[in-house]
UniProtKB/TrEMBL annotation:
PANTHER family: TRANSPOSASE INSF FOR INSERTION SEQUENCE IS3B-RELATED, TRANSPOSASE INSO FOR INSERTION SEQUENCE ELEMENT IS911B-RELATED. Residues 279-311 are annotated as: Disordered. Residues 101-272 form the Integrase catalytic domain. One of its GO terms (molecular function) is nucleic acid binding. The lineage of its organism: Bacteria, Pseudomonadati, Bacteroidota, Chitinophagia, Chitinophagales. PROSITE patterns: INTEGRASE (PS50994). InterPro entries: HTH-like_dom, Integrase_cat-core, RNaseH-like_sf, RNaseH_sf, Transpos_IS3, Transposase_IS3/IS150/IS904. One of its GO terms (biological process) is DNA integration. Transmembrane segments: none annotated. Residues 294-311 have a biased composition (Polar residues). This is Putative transposase.
């Protein structure tokens, strides 16, 4: 427990626990992580969900079971909740992320999105690792597919979502609309206050709607199949560096058919925007194309004051 100081010479651990009104046993308790089998199941669930987002817990359990090993649907349902994964389908869903949080209507239906910073899309995804897992939060510009900001955390708190939002706004200004799902992080008072306070209209997916946040969903599929699954990062630092490199590649080198074979950075005009950002104005003077190496002076690294890893 972080609030108990073992080095305190004046107050014993017993007395500190009494003052904090917590049991002494809770100080010594170390929560167990998921078992190796569960981590393997979570990775398989993540892959299956990308391929078949309409699979619920029962169908997922059937696909993961073999004649030798039957996977319990209750276990799959618990792991899917922990991963913040649910089946996507157009039917009504009675589950709510947080019943006392206000939700906002979906504003993008029949909306023609034809300019940058008109709509940003924001979401959280589960990242499997050999000995655990992390959560990745990212914001993407809907029109250009430019990845504006991202943060990494081992818990799904509102803080790392706010960090990603504040970072994006500080560099690129505020969008007209921010679209999210109805997760408790995005419906929390802290988050909605920050969004509305920046004079951004807040839009939220309908529950179980497959295409309401398609811009960020496409990015999740790309980064997982083109990077995460291929590398199986052993440590959080390696994962962070790998995501960093991939975002550089995705924004500045990966050409999209839907963008007439231009990169997201070209369509967004990122070089011009970044050249006016105070922290990198001396570094980002439209570097020559020959620079391909990824190092600490690269575009995305130079935007980071503090590591976005919240551990």
């Amino acid at each position: 427990m972080a609030l108990v100081n073992k080095e305190d010479n004046e107050l014993s651990i017993v007395r500190q626990c009494q003052l904090l009104e917590v049991s002494r046993s809770s100080h010594y308790h170390e929560p167990k992580g998921e078992s190796k089998l569960n981590l393997e199941l979570m990775e398989q669930i993540d892959r299956l969900h990308l391929e078949h987002p309409y699979f619920g817990a029962e169908r997922m359990a059937k696909h993961l079971s073999t004649p030798e090993v039957q996977v319990n649907v209750k276990r799959i349902r618990r792991l899917m909740r922990k991963m913040d994964i649910s089946a996507i389908y157009p039917a009504p869903n009675t589950s709510e992320a947080c019943k006392w949080h206000k939700t906002y209507p979906y504003l993008l239906r029949n909306l023609k999105i034809d300019r940058n910073n008109m709509v940003w899309s924001m979401d959280i995804t589960y990242i499997p690792m050999p000995k655990g897992f992390m959560y990745l939060c990212a914001i993407i510009d809907w029109n250009s597919r430019y990845l504006l900001s991202w943060t990494l955390s081992n818990t799904m708190t509102v803080e790392f979502c706010l960090e990603a939002l504040e970072k994006a706004i500080s560099i690129y200004g505020a969008p007209e609309i921010l679209n999210t799902d109805q997760g408790s992080q995005f419906t929390s008072e802290d988050f909605t206050t920050a969004v509305l306070g920046a004079e951004i209209r807040l839009s939220m997916d309908g529950v179980g709607r497959a295409t309401d946040n398609i811009a960020i969903e496409r990015f999740w599929r790309s980064i997982k199949y083109e990077n995460i699954y291929l590398n199986a990062y052993d440590s959080t630092l390696d994962l962070y560096k790998g995501i960093h490199r991939y975002v550089e590649f995705y924004n500045w080198e990966r050409k999209h058919q839907g963008l007439e074979y231009k990169t997201p950075a070209e369509v967004y005009g990122a070089a011009d925007k970044l050249s006016t950002y105070p922290q990198i104005s001396t570094k980002r003077k439209k570097e020559p194309k020959k620079e391909k190496g990824y190092n600490s002076s690269n575009r995305f690294d130079s935007l980071i004051n503090n590591s976005p890893i919240a551990v």
